[in-house]
Amino acid sequence: MVGERAEVRKHEDHLRPEGEFLGKREQPSPTKGDRAPVKKPQDNLRPEGDFEGKRDQPAPGLGDRAPIKKPQDNLKPEGDFEGKRENLTPGKGDRAPVKKPEDNLRPEGEFTGKRDSPAPGVGDRAPMKKPVDNLRPEGEFTGKRDDHQPGKGDRAPIVKPKDNLRPEGEFTGKKDEPAPTKGERADVKKPVDNLRPEGEFTGKWDKHVPGKGERADVKRPVDHFRMEGDFTG
User: Nearest 5°: phi and psi at 19?
Assistant: First the structure.
């Protein structure tokens, strides 16, 4: 009928194993919702013979800390010790005394030098000693040493070198007007245009051109389009 669901039909399996079954089906398999038991495999490796080792002390348990065992040194010096062990070695937290080694190098013979002045002590400033120049010119000096040299704190006069280049012959140019001196302003000179139109001018120069500072007249263009015929509206 309409609206009813057909029955689900499961086909039977026609494949079946033949003979006897050989396997491990002794324990029942876990069903749905049950947890299979944890099975730890057994170790088939076992030591043979007697055990030789250090098992005198029990191993630390869970949560216990194993004691720190420092290994002993099996290396020991043989014979008597020969060295410098007269002073006591500083212990933990003590600072060893600073020992400056002595110099075994000493000069032989008498000293010949400049040891007249005592050396400056700690905190003292050694005096400034300017070395004397041992280079001196030989013979008479010929040069320009007539003027007195400026001393310390004096300003040397400014010497402007003179020009030894001078034009030869007569000068032809525009030297009619005197050059402006210091503090005066040279006159503004506008160059004259040497380009001029030739012939008669034909154009719109009938009206006066506005000068500087004047405003040109507003010129509105006249419309040359006009309606023709009678107007009907």
Answer: 90, -175
In this structure, are residues 180 and 186 in contact, taking their beta carbons and an 8 Å threshold? yes
Contact yes or no for 66/60 (Cβ under 8 A):
yes
DSSP string computed for 144-163 = S--SPPP-TTPPPPP-PPPP
199: left (phi over 0), alpha (psi -120 to 50) or beta: left
With a threshold of 0.90, does the pTM exceed it? no
Q: Report residue 63 as tokens.
A: 């949560």
- Cα of first residue to Cα of last residue in the chain, in angstroms, is 90
Q: Given the structure tokens 């402007």, which residue do they identify?
A: 160
Q: pLDDT of 68-98, one tens digit each?
A: 888 888 888 888 877 766 666 767 777 878 8
Given a cut of 70, the residues of the chain with pLDDT beneath it are: 1-2, 24-28, 30, 55, 84-88, 90, 115-118, 120, 144-148, 150, 175-177, 180, 204-210, 233
